[in-house]
Design a protein that fits this description.
heterodimer, A: 132 residues, mainly beta, seven-stranded mixed sheet, 1 helix, 11 strands, B: 140 residues, five-stranded mixed sheet, 10% helix
């Protein structure tokens, strides 16, 4: 049984270009830029849930990503990442997690980020968040 | 279930020893910094990329409620429905496991751990990999 430390032999994968890379507490999140129609200020009075809740932290003022459907998610920081990035499939173990809002995982800035469907993730957080 | 002798990979997760059928254990990996999964339960430590595949990392010690130990090593399981890695702070190698493989509990993860069983060196809980995968994929 070999002891392995991965990293080089990547399988071919789909590519995505145009991402919003976000931080929420110590968590990383990525969204397709095309799914976001605006980035607004997020405050405690906002009706949208905050992604910090999904990492076990209390919300704090930041930015809100808004979808065409009007769903929104608060995050701490947002950065645009325009370079094409490989998308890796969601592991079978996680396919049903987060209300099926995980669209895959992307490599960007030498790190792995969960790629989330904005509206589904917002609805999942709204359903599962505790009192703010 | 009758007494069985079968080759298993034996490893420690936290203070407890576990055994997994050798044919389900693909390799022992050292994993890099994990990416946290939002909304994940505490036993799902995160994910890492391995040969183009995203692998979830599970800490069985957290799942069974015993003392966890920090490690960056894991046993990678490749199952018909998917892959996962279980943290391993010690790996004893492949051994014959002897004992009755009855579920160690009637609910939760212990339904998918079997025993009492032991190797020549220690008592172990034998993991039913498919059952564990089902349990974890339903939110564990």
């Amino acid at each position: 049984m070999p002891e392995a430390q991965d990293l080089s032999r990547e399988r071919p994968s789909a590519m995505v270009a145009g991402l919003l890379l976000c931080r929420a507490a110590d968590g990383r999140l990525a969204f397709r830029a095309r799914d976001v129609v605006s980035v607004e200020a997020w405050s405690a009075s906002a009706r949208s849930p905050h992604a910090r809740l999904a990492f076990g932290f209390s919300p704090q003022p930041g930015r809100a990503l808004v979808s065409a459907e009007g769903d929104a998610v608060g995050v701490d920081e947002v950065a645009v990442f325009a370079e094409p990035s490989p998308v890796l499939a969601t592991p079978a173990l996680l396919e049903r997690a987060l209300g099926k809002s995980i669209a895959g995982f992307v490599f960007a800035r030498d790190r792995l980020w969960p790629l989330l469907r904005l509206s589904e993730f917002s609805r999942f957080l709204a359903t599962h968040e505790g009192p703010r | 279930m009758s007494e069985q002798r079968q080759s298993h990979l034996v490893f420690a997760c936290g203070q407890s020893w576990f055994a997994i059928p050798a044919d389900a254990a693909s390799e022992v990996v050292s994993f890099p910094e994990l990416t946290r999964v939002p909304g994940a339960p505490a036993h799902l430590l995160g994910v890492f990329a391995h040969r183009g595949e995203v692998i979830p990392v599970v800490d069985l010690a957290v799942l069974v409620g015993t003392q966890a130990e920090s490690t960056q090593r894991a046993v990678l399981l490749r199952l018909p429905r998917g892959s996962l890695a279980i943290t391993a702070n010690k790996v004893a190698g492949v051994s014959q496991v002897q004992g009755k493989l009855e579920p160690l509990g009637g609910s939760g993860v212990r339904m998918h751990l079997r025993g009492p069983a032991r190797t020549a060196r220690s008592e172990v809980a034998v993991i039913d990999p498919e059952g564990l995968f089902d349990f974890l994929s339903q939110g564990g």
